[in-house]
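ok trying this again, last paste got cut off
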Amino acid sequence: MGVKTLLCAEAIEALKYAENETPYKPPYTGFIPDEIIRDLGVPLVEGKIPAVLVVVGKVGDKEKLKKLIEDIQKRNILGLFIGDIVKEMEEAKLEFGLDKLLVPVGDSITSAAHAANLAVRVPLIYGGIEPGKTDEIIEYITNRVPAIVVALGPVDDITLAAGAGCIKAGVPVITNNPVPEIKGSLESSDIEDIVENALKMKGVEVKVAEIDIPVSVGPMNEGERVRGPDMQVELAGPKSYGCEIVLVNENAKNGVEIIGNDIDGIEEGSRIPFAIVIEISGKGLESDIEGVLERRVHEFLNYIEGVMHLNQRDQVWIRINKDAYNKGLRLRHIGEVLINLFKESFPIIENCNVKLITEPEKVKEAIEMAQSRYKERDARARALSEDDVDTFYGCVMCQSFAPTHVCIITPDRPSLCGSISYFDARAAAKIDPEGPIFEVPKGECLDEKLGIYDGVNKVVQEKSGGAVEEFALHSAMIKPCTSCGCFEAIVFYIPEVDGFGVVHRHFKGETPYGLPFSAIAGQCSGGKQVEGFVGISVEYMRSPRFLKGDGGWNKIVWLPEELKEKVKDAIPKKLRDKIATEKDISNTEELKKYLMDKKHPVIEKLEEHDKIEDKIETEEKPVDISKSKTELTVPTISLPAGFGGLPSNMKIILKNVVIKAEELVITREDLKTKSKKI
């Protein structure tokens, strides 16, 4: 009955969308698209978002409501709210939205179908499980999706039935009502402890940072913006100057130093120079990890209530709002937060000294020193290549969602989620030797062009449980790397032009195939190795080894305009106006014509194929294939094993044939239709 109730709820919700493209108006979201699920992928696998609570019903007490929301926020839990509780939050003037991880889904119990739908799509997106494999999907949700239903207040029969459906689907339910308890599936708790007890049902432990300062500290404050009228003071920023830098110094001491005026000595609304210099010491710390730790300053400062931190290095921009200032927040508190969070996050750090500088001349001295160090780091990073190192790094963080996925990180290939560079990985492996990022001896290079190394292959076989035997780091066509679901972009093969398109996660339109990002992403996510498709980071497109095994930029024929502009500096100048975007073409026929008009490098083969096709069609006598080698050169197309989802042991070789583009267009249109129906 429970599953039937969820199916009926989904049918009702589907009818809402059939009758109205936007049936949900703010603050409600209704359906949660794939793009948001993928955006949440990295923080979920990193544990930054430790769980998802689907909160249904009504609290009935303003103070208890505030305590409930505070308990959710300080643990950085994603909360999906359904029913009367949303109105209660509005009346209590509590802020919500995706940036706060507090998401009102809908006002009726049927909208719970969108939360259930989200849970089901996680194994489809990240686990590579095919739709319809019910038992596998339920097992995945039970073991890998940290979602719990919290049912509050009076519960009617429909809500009870929907809860039973959630339990059947692998999502436990906890309520503040008396119920016949089933350990781990259905439990009761008083509302004061319901969040902590909900996490225990999924075996999730969350450590809450307790720092004695006048405002709250935690991930729930990330995304907070401080507008001009609310600003007490602006530190550095575009109308002033400043910097931030982390330095390894074996003589570092613990403490906070304020050089210049604290904010209570600065006129309200002022914009002043500002520098943060952090010195750290500890056994095993090396200067190579300075930049890695430096990037955490952005995250840690945004944890502080009332503080907005933007940009990095000598472009840093910080604002503190009036409310936080009036509560007593001062620079020394910011320094204490940095010391606490650095030492808590990186136990290898023994001492941490934070200098916060507002004296203009001292800020200038700090900037000069910092810029010199930035240049040294950048020169070292740009000069480093795979040939210069004996060790790569592997990451299996995403195996919590995609069990066979292994990410290999090299100086020329960042993690496909875009969040881990080679130096990041090296620092992480050193700081946490037992963590999900580890050393990979690269071993002998078996193919320099493709990027195949025997050491990498051994690790991939071991870490994937034998599911994957070989990786080519720089090819989408031959043994490409596996893709989890957190990738920033996808490379996909376009056989009609023998070239590649690249589409990024936030592209809203359709590719030349007529398919959106989400449909193409389904081809290669879930830890699958599918030749013709591979997930990548945007930064990899700037690498000198970008798709080297497939021809590199010379084989890129299509990019969304936004992505093209973002990586413009990496595209060879002679190709910049030859790569099409969605504004230039809308299908593969138009793409082919565009490439010919622009004389893209791939047209040489296209023109050769067209000449062959024309000769075959105008030939009065049947073509004698046995003599074709001397009279007519007809292409051979080899589609490698695994291409487009073929079985890994099957390869298709098409000899002495001509593939007509219009026939493939029909196939893609069929795929488009099916995708929309799904």
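PB: full thing came through this time. The longest helix spans residues 360-383.
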